[in-house]
Amino acid sequence: MSTRERLxxxxxxxxxxxxxxxxxxxxxxxxxxxxxxxxYHHFSGKEExxxxxxxxxxxxxxxxxxxxxxxxxxxxxxxxxxxxxxxEVMKGCPIGRLTQxxxxxxxxxxxxxxxxxLNWLRERLAALVAEGVADGELNPAxxxxxxAAAIVATLQGGYVLARAANDPQAFQQAIEGVLALLGAPSxx
Amino acid sequence: MSTRERLxxxxxxxxxxxxxxxxxxxxxxxxxxxxxxxxYHHFSGKEExxxxxxxxxxxxxxxxxxxxxxxxxxxxxxxxxxxxxxxEVMKGCPIGRLTQxxxxxxxxxxxxxxxxxLNWLRERLAALVAEGVADGELNPAxxxxxxAAAIVATLQGGYVLARAANDPQAFQQAIEGVLALLGAPSxx
DNA sequence: GTCTATATTTCGATAGAC
DNA sequence: GTCTATCGAAATATAGAC
Lengths: 188, 188
Description:
Two copies of one chain form a homodimer.
Chain A: H1 3-18, H2 25-32, H3 36-42, H4 46-69, H5 75-84, H6 102-105, H7 108-135, H8 144-165, H9 168-182
Helix pairs in contact in A: 1-2, 1-4, 4-7, 5-9, 7-8, 8-9
Chain A binds a DNA duplex (18 and 18 nucleotides) through residues 3, 24-26, 34-38, 40-42, 45-46.
């Protein structure tokens, strides 16, 4: 892997684990096994590097989530599959976490990909909920937009609960909680 | 207000707005209009001051939320009242936000009050859900523990969505989404 | 492209006078 | 209790040699 690649991947790792404010250029360089000069040769600074890293994480997420949500099964089955898929629960959402970083929120170049990804996810789920309602699989009284917001919020908030409780199970409980409310069959 | 009080209140404000890693002693002192010496006279350092600030925020939250959840109305009405109460949505949850701070999570003294508060909230809501189920107000198929986790997660995740979208409405949508799933009457 | 040297600020705290 | 001085380390770059 090229030095440039290692810098990007190291940044992705650190943004996920520690966020933007708490990640220093020095730490990135050490993890990437790259010198000071290399980093500033390839990128104008911490901000640009973070933007490239966030963009890549956002793209990967859209690709993998998009595939699951467009996969086989009924709308509710696809939503369940997505919500129950394996995750590094204790690490949290690599995109959602950035909304709690003051320096990310203060930097338009960094918020943009975060906003786009989360909004995309809500829209994608709203479309699926609408489909489920049209098919008669979901309660016809459900509003697709608010229901989708609740689903995404449960995911994001599930990470918060898991970290607070220091137990991934808290995340799973939140997920099973919404799924039950949606009328999905229990897994046990 | 005493200097000590101003230091605590300033820290509470900054922890809420920027988190722990991104808050420096210097900033706290400036906001509190206190000198270096004052801060280190009243507290051993940033960590102890943060602990006192977090404890106070946690206590206030338990008091106000506890009052709402023990207030008048049926279980579902009380849950709705709590979820729909006025909030500084764009600032997020002063307690939940701390779970995304790497230095808070690495410091047992600081995680403890966060963990206790969020766990308390889940238990409190689980008891209310159980009550609603027993009364026949809520779907008897609902599991109190997972349902409560989903409710708290929706709250916490709603803040994430609102910040990402730069729009408090995203939070409201998530809230109305779960409430509809719970069978609460729509507000409009 | 990568390295070393240097620079400016800030961080988080200590020391000691008043 | 509060103030000023000082400290060693880290943050975030820039400069210029190789």
